[in-house]
Design brief:
Blueprint (H helix, E strand, L loop, with lengths): L1 H4 L2 H5 L15 H17 L8 H10 L12 H13 L3 H4 L1 H20 L4 H12 L2 H8 L3 H22 L3 H14 L5 H15 L8 H23 L3 H17 L5 H9 L4 H13 L7 H16 L11 H12 L6 H6 L2 H15 L17 H4 L4 H13 L3 H5 L1 E5 L2 H11 L7 E2 L17 E5 L3 H4 L3 E9 L14 E8 L3 H8 L4
Parallel strand pairs: 1-2, 1-3
Antiparallel strand pairs: 3-5, 4-5
Helix pairs in contact: 3-7, 3-8, 4-5, 4-24, 7-8, 7-9, 7-10, 7-18, 8-18, 9-20, 10-11, 11-13, 12-17, 15-16, 16-17, 16-18, 22-24
Protein name: 4-amino-4-deoxy-L-arabinose transferase-like glycosyltransferase
Subcellular location: Cell membrane
Membrane topology: Multi-pass membrane protein
Length: about 500
Amino acid sequence: MVAEARTAAESAATIDEPVARDLPAFARQPVLVVAGAVVAALLATAGRYGFAGDELYFLRAGRSLDWSYADQPPLVPLVARLVDLLFGPNLVALRVFPALLTGVGVVLAALLAREFGGARRAQLVAAGAFACSPIVLVHGHWLATATLDIVSWALICLLLVRWVRTRRDVLLLWAGVTTAVALQNKFLVVFLVVVLLVSIAVTGPREVLGRPLLWVGAAIAVVATVPALLWQASHGWPQLAMGPVLSAEIDAVEGGRAMFLPFVLGSAGPLLMFPAMYGTWRLLRAEWLRPYRFLGWTVVGLLAVFLITNGRQYYVAGVFPVVWAVAAVELDRADSARWWRFAFGKVGFAFSALAAVFLALPVLPVTSVATGPQAFLLSSVETIGNPELVDAVERAYRALPAARQEEAVVVADTYGPASAVEVLGRERGLPHAYSPHRGYWYFGAPPDSARTVLFVGADENYLRQYFGSVRRVGEVDNGVGVVNFSQGMAIWLCEDVKQPWSRLWPTMHHLA
């Protein structure tokens, strides 16, 4: 038992002393089996349904590589571009990277349990918790910024936990390097770093704040982010402008602050939410975890920050591996409660795995999504209908006389349909797609020679501000009755543009 294995030296250690503990052996084989099973499940379902709108946007952004974008740093579009160059817009190839990252996350969860003194069983339980969480599988299924966030946050925490035990300062340097990479993915990691530093300053071990390599790592992270910050500054800090827009979107779609904590717990898993809460509580209260108390307050601090700022529930998913690891180690204690063993036992894991797979992965026939539980999950419904959207645009385009086809462009009200037409429609001979929405607007305006426009989305009154002639010529239908953002979207034939596009485009830019 872990409780019996803890040494007297460890129990007597103070926060500012290294934790004296001999690490258990790494349960390499079973942990790698779990990681391999997760990767296999993700790859087996990678080709089902279709691209998510964000994935198509990443592919489009990758074709206009830059130091940053209006809505994110450059890393994920760069990954998408590499896949695009090697395989074209291939759905399975695009999803290999997030699947492999998720496998890495499984291993990191096990290593965290090992650092807390967990032996084979605890390591396997922590790995299994990560593998069976709906939020992990959702973001492991498709290419998303959250995928790298979860894994990079777990790695930063692992490096700090290992530093507490070993006092090897090179680990702090690697934490800085990891932060530098995470900042190329999303600026969200700044919240983790700031809350970690505040928690350490308040609860200890304060010694870490005086280690030079910590600040060398911080300098690396800052320097690596300078190009993205310069891009943001030269374009008027568009990512800051996205904050209020996302907050309004969260209020409208996700229930806002009132639903933040319920959604956080639900995203961990219907049973795995209980170990997550228990692991947080033990970090805050257990005497043997006193050197790691800063991690418990980091979890609490992040929850408070994202609740106050009206953040998305998955923003805190990167600390789930930490609290699951602590909970897994506690499971090995002789006085563990029966309910606790059930949540992390074979029956509990079987239930969690089945629930996560059926909720997060496209294992059901696409025809059943409209009437099943996945109808309420954006992660499922937004991967349906993009080919049909392009089909509808193509029908409208082919109906134009040849002379008008030559001067036609596609403009979409939002970035998702524009990305779908640009990525999936160009190989069909469709014209370039433009959009005044969010970051897509920065890819450029239609040429002033474009007099015929197939406009996807919006309504007639809006379009008549910009065009003298507006006529509805089509509608998007995914064919399976799934209600999503593109279902029922109108396609308009717009002519007689009232101003040159070079003048019109700045007035059309919108974020909502």
